[in-house]
Amino acid sequence: MAVNEQGQIIGYAYFTHGDNIVTELGGAVQPEYWNQGIGSALIEWAEIRATAVSQNAPVGIKTVLQTNLFGTEYNAIQLFTEHGFAPVREWMHLAIELQAPPVVPALPNLTLRPMDLNKDWDIVGPAMDEAFADHWGCIPEGSFEAIEQDQTNPESEAESERPTDDSYSNAPGYCFIALDGETVAGGILCNAKLVERNDTGRVGSIFVHPAYRKRGIARALMLTAFDAFWKNGFRRVITDTDANSFTDSTRLYKGLGMQPYRSEFTYEKEIRPGREVRRLEM
To answer: CATH number of the domain at 99-234, out of 3.20.20.80, 1.20.1290.10, 3.60.21.10, 3.40.630.30?
Structure first.
């Protein structure tokens, strides 16, 4: 955190890392303190942290520091650009104003039910991993031998077995899975805790296992989520997606009547040169 002479917080930054290959920076500075070097100091702090943790990444692998900025954050974009960051991906934010209860189509030979956020991760997690393996930025299996610290740190290994269940991203009654017998064909994770507007629900993520694509599952899952929001008084639903998605997800959302309302960009800076192991293009 950055504080003024009175001890008041005037800016902050956070730094996160998982596999030490891609690290992330975020934060803010109060407008009245812009152009005083505070933002630069926070970025430099994060770069030092990123450089340190990159030493734990597999030898010879490229590591980067990322941040996400909305297209209207002109001052922040300029600041990060001056520090050597460059845009690498655009994310589209979409919204829909529901005018009537959605009609959920049937899924022949599949069962669509609410997800039990306490018990279903063991079957949902692996299906999500398969589905997101062809997304931008994913590190495919076999790209490198292994991350040494995951092999020697039992706690890290245990934590990686199950996705984090955070009520701000996964809310009971708003998450659903499509099942083929006991096999998860797809799922959708939504939440109803937002700071934008109290009448708005959010689709956090939607996935369909590659073996079940092109069967209308994603559309049925979206409409199921819309129906849950409608029944609970939410009339606006938002989501965001990769504007250049390999699976053309924007077509799904626009086909349901969702419209873009803002853009967000991933900016990235190389921390350590090496071999690129992420999936960045088809």
So the answer is: 3.40.630.30
**Exposed, middle or buried, 77 (CB in 10 Å: 0-12/13-18/19+)?**
middle
Q: What is the pLDDT of residues 152-188, one digit of tens each?
A: 444 444 444 444 444 456 899 999 999 999 999 999 9
pTM of the model: 0.86
pLDDT digits (tens, 9 = 90+) for 21-45: 999 999 999 999 999 999 999 999 9
Please state, for a pLDDT cut of 70, what percent of the chain lies above it: 90
Between these two residues, 10 and 158, which has the higher pLDDT value?
10
In this structure, which CATH number among 3.40.309.10, 1.25.40.280, 3.40.630.30, 1.10.10.10 belongs to the domain 2-91+266-272? 3.40.630.30
**Mean pLDDT over each residue of the chain, to the nearest integer:** 90
